[in-house]
Design brief:
The complex is a heterodimer. By secondary structure, chain A is an all-beta fold. Helices cover 0% and strands 55% of the residues of chain A. Chain A is built from no helices and eleven strands. In chain A, the strands form two sheets. In chain A, strands 2, 4, 5, 6, 9, 10 and 11 form a seven-stranded mixed sheet that branches. The termini of chain A are far apart. By secondary structure, chain B is mostly beta strands. Helix content of chain B is 0%, strand content 46%. Chain B contains no helices and nine strands. A five-stranded mixed sheet of chain B has the order 1-9-8-3-4, with no helix packed on it. Chain B has a four-stranded antiparallel sheet with strand order 2-7-6-5, with no helix packed on it. Chain B is globular. Chain B starts with 8 loop residues before the first strand and ends with a strand. Classes of the chains: A mainly beta, B mainly beta. Chains A and B meet through strand 4, strand 5, strand 9 and strand 10 of A and strand 3 and strand 4 of B.
């Protein structure tokens, strides 16, 4: 099946710093990528949808100035958590839609801990 | 996208078939049924999807009722590694506006 990678898999940072998470589709082109967040014992929550070359669309309640998304190519999207605080600690998961099959594949996730 | 209803949890004996039901009574004609699973601390894994015909792949089978208002995911010979949360999702395919919204899913436990 199609593979989506994320980097880093785990990051610990101090409060007030910014953290960038990369998401890559390794063997397919993804015109659309998605970012989700998951808190312990909860389901995945969609944060935003990004289309290559255009601005991301954020779900209600998600601060676009805090969670910066860039989708510069058909295989790479980045999520930057700016001025991170402890409440931003979560499991962040990206997803990429295969243009040919229209199936959405998910990355392994990035666990962010803000101290 | 249509809403789905799944049991909160199920269990199954190792080696037996695991049958996971999903209700999607408000599904539209152009919406597909997708199944994903999430093993603890990992990203969701795509399993299978279908429109109206039954589908089978190396992981599972998907049985969709004739009226398309419900479906069943079948794992033919469950193993301990199949312990996960299983999500049934309906969405329109080949639509730029379509996105996957996760419900609570079914927590499947496989007992030895």
């Amino acid at each position: 099946g199609a593979v989506v990678s994320q980097h880093p898999s785990r990051v610990i940072c101090k409060s007030g710093t910014s953290v960038k998470i990369e998401c890559r589709s390794l063997d397919f082109q993804a015109t659309t990528m998605f970012w989700y967040r998951q808190f312990p014992k909860q389901s995945l929550m969609l944060m935003a949808t990004s289309n290559e070359g255009s601005k991301a669309t954020y779900e209600q309640g998600v601060e676009k100035d805090k969670f910066l998304i860039n989708h510069a190519s058909l295989t790479l999207s980045t999520l930057t958590v700016t001025s991170a605080h402890p409440e931003d600690s979560s499991f962040y998961i990206c997803s990429a839609r295969d243009f040919d099959t229209d199936t959405q594949y998910f990355g392994p996730g990035t666990r962010l801990t803000v101290l | 996208d249509a809403k789905t209803t799944q049991p909160t949890s199920m269990d199954c004996a190792e080696g037996r078939a695991a049958n996971l039901p999903c209700n999607h009574s408000t599904i539209s004609g152009n919406e597909y049924v997708y199944w994903y699973r999430q093993i603890h601390s990992q990203g969701p894994q795509y399993i299978i999807h279908g429109l109206k015909n039954n589908e089978t792949n190396e992981m599972a089978s998907l049985i969709i009722t004739e009226d398309r208002k419900s479906s069943t995911l079948i794992l033919p010979h469950a193993t301990l590694r199949d312990t996960a949360v299983y999500y049934c999702i309906v969405r329109v395919s080949y639509s730029s506006a379509s996105k996957i919204i996760f419900g609570s899913g079914t927590r499947l436990s496989i007992r030895p």
